[in-house]
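Name: Helix-turn-helix domain-containing protein
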Amino acid sequence: MSLGNSLKHARVAQNLTQEEVSKKLFVIRQTVSRWEQNKTMPNIYVLKDLSKLYDLSIDDLISETKAQIHEDEEEKSMNKVNWFALFGVIAFNVLLLSSGGIIVVALLGALWVITGAFILSPVFLLIGLLSGTQVYPLVATGVCAVIFIIGLFLFPLAKKATQYLVNFSIGYVKYNFRTIYK
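Structure predicted for Helix-turn-helix domain-containing protein:
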């Protein structure tokens, strides 16, 4: 039973009309009607006044509502698939992943490759110097140091972008599940 039905049964049990309840609570009759039809809900202060008026505790007024909510949650199990939503989600995701998603992942991968290469540039310079295959002038060493510093600044950016993309993807998948299952 809903809160509205509980309120209506409690009002009828007290032999009160909606008009009488509205006068005692200083609201219009339509407000009482909306509560009983579950179109709106009374606030906690009004529930307190209603419980006094109907000689019931607030818990008694809403206990059946809590049971109904629990039953509704059990009824909304993952066994009921909305097939139209499933088709829509699959079609939209194929379009999304075939264009934008692939581009975003490629750009993120490129950011990580560039960041890694910039950070490892002193290692490549050192390997070239120690192996004797290359002779680097002092300017190249300075440029290598600047690139290394740029790589250090790019690392937090790449990490933050990756975390954002992962969190967005997880939220997107959860949203799709809520859409598919009734």
